[in-house]
Amino acid sequence: MPPKTAKAAAAGEAGDGRKQPTAQEAFLFYTIIKNMKGKPEIDWNSVAVDAGFKNAETAKVSFIVPVTNIVRI
After folding, report:
1. Domain residue ranges in the chain
2. Is the pTM value of this prediction over 0.90?
3. CA dist 24 to 47, 54, 61, Å?
4. Residue 1 — very low, low, confident or very high, per pLDDT cuts 50/70/90?
């Protein structure tokens, strides 16, 4: 991922123009994931396309590894 420009950082965007979550939004997302009671139904192929991953498996691993590490804390 390219570094953020000052303008992009101020606007809450990545260097490529995608909007980034605020710390509060990211924490809310983390809290929701942490407190889920069932397994979510996720279209990993769509996630891969939207996020720019090469395939569904890469997208899934890219999500599961950090979430697993966070939930263990």
Report:
1. 21-71
2. no
3. 22, 29, 24
4. very low
58's CB contacts (< 8 A; 6+ apart) are: 48
Can you tell me which residue has the tokens 């990211």? 26
Per-residue pLDDT reduced to its tens digit, 33-62:
888 898 889 999 999 999 999 999 999 999
DSSP H helices, 1-73, are: 6-10, 23-34, 44-51, 56-71
Structure tokens belonging to residue 28: 């809310």
Sign of the alpha-carbon dihedral angle for 3, 26, 45, 8: negative
Q: Give the C-alpha separation, 20 to 28, whole Å.
A: 14
d(CA 49, CA 56): 8
Place of tokens 């809290």: 31
